[in-house]
Structure prediction request, 163 residues.
Amino acid sequence: MKVTNIHRRTLQQPKEKLVEWFTTLATDQDRVWPSKQWPPMRFKEGLQVGAKGGHGPVRYTVEKMDNWEYIQFRFTQPKGFHGYHRLEINAVTRTQTEIKHVLKMNTSGAATFSWLLVFRPLHDALIEDAFDKVENQFSDQTKRTAWSFWVKFLRNILKKITA
Prediction:
């Protein structure tokens, strides 16, 4: 199955400020990844081209990076996920920046069903939580994207399996 999944959010911050925030990704001072709610993103070699890592059961290799304006990860797990996901930081104006997450892949075999039933809803919730975390660092109001019943249900099951 061909999959294209895109999340974007425009923030009232200059691109340089968001690039600064995103350089903390997968570090102990991470200002992007919502590791309080989700398994942390980890890379033994740090975030650089060729580094292998991931989060939870999702594994990938850093395939491309361009001055933190984008970083692209090539899936290595789960089996049947053939493609990449990319994080982009794009200036809209001098004081407005779009953060964008793009996932493009083809699934095969059982991965098609696991994407539709498990990974897609969890992925969507995780990306929105990450974008909320970034946005909340620049706002007086706390944004929290609500999880669907299905996401809550899946997280409850996964918590019991991994406990």
Q: What stands out?
A: Helices lie at 15-22, 110-136, 149-162. The CA atoms of residues 58 and 73 lie 11 Å apart.
